[in-house]
Amino acid sequence: MGKKVKLQRISEHVWIFPFDSPKDRPNLGYICGTKMALAVDAGHFSKHVEEFYAAILAEGLSLPEITVITHWHWDHTYGMHAVRGKTMARAETNSILTQIRQEMSSDPDKVREFLNSDPSIQREYAGGVPVIVVPAEESIMGDCSIALGGVTAELMLSESPHTDDALLVYVPEDRVLFVGDAQLGEFPSWKMNWKKLASFAKKVQEIDADVIIDGHWKPYTKEEFMADIM
Ligand SMILES: [Zn+2]
């Protein structure tokens, strides 16, 4: 048994379940209000979700009622079938996930291709467990905000060089911003579209945040993050 990963507190209402590079697990966000809690991203696989939920309960916190998705990539979404409560993602994200689901169900080679595409995926799916891809229950069509009780999750559509379905999650009360992998180049070429990066950087610059949480690294101050992307 590996060591148990704990939630890391970022601010009054915000925690993260920290990233794990060998399994390509991204940071999962947890925003807790007096009415309900919201998770940012569903993780790589059901086991990732189980460990995230165990870490939430270990802190005496309640499990999320809503999970929102930052972009369609497997390490952020393939745990979605295992989350509790409502799931929400951009319409673009849902159409990509629906397409992958159809391809995998009609062609077992697609599942094998996915499992063989990276050692981190093989580590995560060790033991022959099935790959289950589902879209979110609700499609996000535009910017919107969710009141959690004393704290708000603002969902913002953004341009990004990484994917065309980026969603940012901003917590104004705590001045924390979740960006998924939005500042990175395109996968798998890592080719950078500088115009899209500039558009993303401008958007982030205008958001009043102290801390920025991305997918696969430690929390940044806004200054550090802007210095990295400009
Ligand atoms: Zn990604």
What features would you describe in this structure?
This protein is of the alpha/beta class and 230 residues long. The chain has a single domain (8-229), classed as Metallo-beta-lactamase, Chain A (4-Layer Sandwich). 30% of the residues lie in helices and 23% in strands. It is built from seven helices and 13 strands. The strands form two sheets. It has a seven-stranded mixed sheet with strand order 1-2-3-4-5-6-7. A six-stranded mixed sheet has the order 8-9-10-11-12-13. Helix 3 packs across helix 4. The radius of gyration is 17 Å and the shape is globular. The relative contact order is 0.16. Bound molecules: zinc ion. Zinc ion (ZN) binds at residues 71, 73, 162, 181, 187. The site of zinc ion (ZN) has 5 residues, from loops.
Characterize this entry briefly:
The protein is of the alpha/beta class and 230 residues long.
Detail the topology: elements first, then pairings.
Blueprint: E1 8-9, E2 14-17, E3 28-32, E4 37-40, H1 46-58, E5 66-68, H2 74-77, E6 86-90, H3 91-106, H4 108-116, H5 119-124, E7 138-140, E8 144-147, E9 152-157, E10 167-171, E11 176-180, H6 194-206, E12 211-214, E13 220-221, H7 222-229
Parallel strand pairs: 4-5, 5-6, 6-7, 11-12
Antiparallel strand pairs: 1-2, 2-3, 3-4, 8-9, 9-10, 10-11, 12-13
Bound molecules: zinc ion.
Approximately how much beta-strand content do the residues carry?
A: 15-25%
CATH superfamily: Ribonuclease Z/Hydroxyacylglutathione hydrolase-like
What do the pLDDT scores average to?
Answer: 96
Ligand kinds: zinc ion
Which blocks of ≥5 consecutive residues have pLDDT under 50? none
Overall form: globular
**Could you give the order of the helices and strands?**
EEEEHEHEHHHEEEEEHEEH
* Rg over alpha carbons: 17 Å
Sheet with most strands: strand arrangement: 1-2-3-4-5-6-7
How many structural domains in the coordinates? Answer: 1
The CATH topology: Metallo-beta-lactamase, Chain A
Please give the count of helices. Answer: 7
Largest sheet: number of strands, sense, barrel closure:
7 strands, mixed
CATH architecture: 4-Layer Sandwich
Please give the CATH class: Alpha Beta
Category by helix and strand content:
alpha/beta
- Residue share in helix: 25-40%
Instruction: State the distance separating the first and last CA atoms.
Output: 42 Å
Kindly state the number of beta strands: 13
